[in-house]
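hey can u check if this looks right to u? its 237 residues, i copy pasted from the old doc so theres a chance i mangled smth
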Amino acid sequence: MPADRAPGLVLSPTARVGDGVVFGCNVVVHDDVVLEDGVRVQDGVVLGKQPALRPGSSAEGMAVGALVVEAGAVICAQAVVFAGARIGAGAIVGDQSYVRERAGVGAGSLVGRGTCVDNDVAIGERVRLQSGVYLTAFSVVEDDVFVGPCAVTTNDPAAGRPTGPLVGATLRRGCRIGAGAVLLPGVEIGEEAFVAAGAVVTTSVAPRAVVMGVPARTVREVPEGELLAGTERASGG
């Protein structure tokens, strides 16, 4: 339904819009989307898009639900956020980013420009995903994680052959992933660990370990001065 709140705005009559919500030009808001108070939606954004799945997709038949964008979040120009996603309070979804169904982005987190957050991804609070990151389906990203530009996670050990379930990556609290790193299916990056730029991670990484290379190998431990304040070390310290 065309609306007069902004040029070119198409707003479903079933959408719920809170106080102080600001729309840019040519925004599309689909059915049942919830925009809480103070949300900002920039030009060309699509909110509440339904997924188009191929026959036999692992997500076929799964419930989608409504998109909820919590108070004060910002959805930047030309981003697409699917039905069933949840964007936390004060989070920023960058220009041309893509957040799929049943994905959650925690409060205060940043999804960088052109980043793809696939279906069923759980992202904690204060996470920083830089430009061009790909978070594959069924991944978990805990609080205070940093993921550098163009890092890639994967979830299919058989590369498209129907041999088993998809298993995403798990990034524990405060870990850091360097630019262009590749994480293979099912790997876990431990709390406060550091994956160097360009590394290919084939096995799980211990807490506080620094890994680099192809395949990635442990080279040292993250120094005390780089640890998050108040983080409980895996060693119990």
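The radius of gyration is 19 Å.
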